[in-house]
Amino acid sequence: MNRALIAWSSGKDSAWALHEARRSGELEIVGALTTVTHEFCRVSMHGTREELLAAQLEAARLPAVNVRIPFPCPNEIYEREMAAALNEAKRAGVSHVVFGDLFLEDIRAYRESRLAEIGITPVFPLWHRPTGALAREMIDGGLEGYLVCVDRKKLPASFAGRKFDRALLDSLPADIDPCGENGEFHSFVTAGPMLAHAIKVAVGDTVERDGFAFADLMPDVKPATD
């Protein structure tokens, strides 16, 4: 069976792509490829704490393949570090990378072009699935999570920290994609069929920076009692 990495953002689309890839049985997923901003120790763009990423991947039964990038990160540095990680994965026998992309043609073309240079095949199990139906399928299938990053040009900051559920879908403006594929929001998955157990989190403060609102999720660790 071909060995693959999952391009892992910690959000719902990559999580559901993992679920679909495992269900198909055509690939052996052997690791999760995630960009982490070095200065903050957080998942790039999503702003999720690295300790929550580690807990999530433990629940997903996946080794972490973290690509550390600086802030700010010029594109040439991002591409250099990502290529180094992928070349190392190829030497270890990885032949495919699974992505959770839905319909952005330019993003898909970029991924295909960069992976072709390395000799790795991209896989897009969610490609062109209707996003409204897909979002409801995720929720009905047991996926749980929170919005951790919101583009303030598209949504109010109050959406940061909200649960990804049917109430959220019903409250989204008509011009917002239900899966946030146009960058309207990003999420962190706490439960679902791709995780062996749920991850307990607490929603902390919302911080606004560079036009985005970030909800700070923290591990919800209950104090020990006598």
Give a structural overview.
- The chain is an alpha/beta fold and about 230 residues long.
- It folds into two domains: about 1-125, Rossmann fold, CATH 3.40.50; about 135-220, no CATH class.
- Helix content is about 30%, strand content about 30%.
- The chain is built from six helices and ten strands, in the order βαββαβαβαβαβαβββ.
- It has helices at about 10-25, 50-60, 75-90, 105-120, 130-140, 165-170; strands spanning about 1-5, 25-35, 40-45, 65-70, 95-100, 120-125, 145-150, 185-190, 200-210, 210-220.
- Strands 1, 2, 3, 4, 5 and 6 form a six-stranded mixed sheet that branches. A four-stranded antiparallel sheet has the order 8-7-10-9, with helices on one face.
- The model has no long low-confidence stretch (mean pLDDT about 95).
In short:
This protein has 226 residues and is α/β, with parallel strands linked by helices. It has six helices and ten strands.
Write the layout of secondary structure elements.
Layout: E1 2-7, H1 12-24, E2 27-37, E3 42-43, H2 50-59, E4 64-69, H3 75-91, E5 94-98, H4 105-118, E6 121-123, H5 131-140, E7 144-151, H6 166-171, E8 185-191, E9 201-209, E10 212-219
Parallel strand pairs: 1-2, 1-5, 2-4, 5-6
Antiparallel strand pairs: 2-3, 7-8, 7-10, 9-10
User: In angstroms, what separates the terminal alpha carbons?
Assistant: 50 Å
By secondary-structure content and strand pairing, the structural class works out as: alpha/beta
Shape: globular
CATH superfamily of the largest domain: HUPs
- Give average pLDDT, whole number: 96
Estimate the strand proportion.
25-35%
Question: How many helix segments?
Answer: 6
The tally of strands reads: 10
Q: Gyration radius, to the nearest Å?
A: 17 Å
Q: How do the helices and strands follow one another from N- to C-terminus?
A: EHEEHEHEHEHEHEEE
Residue runs with pLDDT of under 50 for 5 or more positions: none
